[in-house]
Design goal:
Length: about 200
C-alpha cells in the first residue's frame, strides 16, 4: 500500500523532543476543548524512530498541542488524513534558496516535499564588501534583486521582514570570507589577512 505523507509545515519539527507533544499531555481535557486545527486519522511518525501508529494531532496558534491516538475536543478546522502519514518537517542541510527567497518567500519547491528548515550558506550572503556586491550582481540570472545589505545578519533580517514560509539557518561561508579579503586570486592569506578573516567570521 502506498502511503501519502501529510506534513505539518511551518512549526517546530522535532515532535519527539517536546514534552507537550505526547498523548498524556491532554489527558483529562474536556471533550468540549476547541482547537484551531485537528488532523485526524493519520499515521503518526513522531520523529523518535518509534513504530508509527494511527492517531490525531492538534494545533493551536503556532504550537502542536497534542499528538496521540485520539485528540480531545473539536477543531475550527478539521482535516481527515486517512491513509496518509503525519510527520515532522524535514531539514534540507544543503539548501540554495538564498536568491529565490528574495523574490518568492513561499519556498514551495521544498515545502511541498515537507522541508520546513532550509540550511544554506555554502556561499553565504554576507559579509559583503563592494567587490562582492558587484560580483553577486554580475552573476544574477533569472532572479534579480537589490543588494542593500552588508552583513549576513542584515540579509537574514531582510528575509524576516519580507516574510518567508520556511525556517532558515545559514553558515558563514569560507568562500565568501576568502573572496571578501583576497578577491578571486589563488593566493594564501598572510597573517594580517587571516586575522581579518577570523574577525569577519566573528
Amino acid at each position: 500500500m502506498k502511503i501519502r505523507i501529510l506534513r505539518v509545515t511551518g512549526l517546530l519539527t522535532v515532535l519527539a523532543a517536546l514534552p507537550w507533544a505526547t498523548p498524556a499531555t491532554s489527558a483529562g481535557k474536556s471533550q468540549a476543548t476547541l482547537h484551531d486545527t485537528i488532523i485526524r486519522n493519520g499515521i503518526i511518525y513522531d520523529g523518535s524512530g518509534s513504530k508509527p501508529y494511527p492517531g490525531d494531532l492538534t494545533i493551536d496558534a503556532d504550537r502542536i498541542t497534542y499528538v496521540g491516538p485520539h485528540a480531545p475536543g473539536r477543531g475550527r478546522t478539521e482535516v481527515d488524513a486517512h491513509g496518509q502519514a503525519i510527520a515532522p518537517g524535514f531539514v534540507n542541510m544543503l539548501a540554495h534558496p538564498e536568491e529565490s527567497l528574495m523574490v518568492d518567500g513561499r519556498a514551495l519547491s521544498d515545502l511541498r516535499q515537507g522541508v520546513t528548515l532550509e540550511v544554506m550558506g555554502e556561499i553565504s550572503m554576507g559579509p559583503l564588501n563592494d567587490n562582492l556586491k558587484s560580483f553577486f550582481k554580475k552573476f544574477q540570472t533569472d532572479v534579480h534583486y537589490d543588494i542593500d545589505w552588508t552583513t549576513l545578519g542584515e540579509y537574514l533580517t531582510k528575509l524576516e521582514k519580507k516574510g518567508i514560509a520556511p525556517n532558515i539557518a545559514s553558515f558563514v561561508s569560507a568562500g565568501t570570507i576568502r573572496q571578501y579579503v583576497l578577491g578571486e586570486d589563488d593566493v594564501q592569506p598572510d597573517a594580517a589577512q587571516l586575522a581579518q578573516m577570523r574577525q569577519l567570521v566573528h
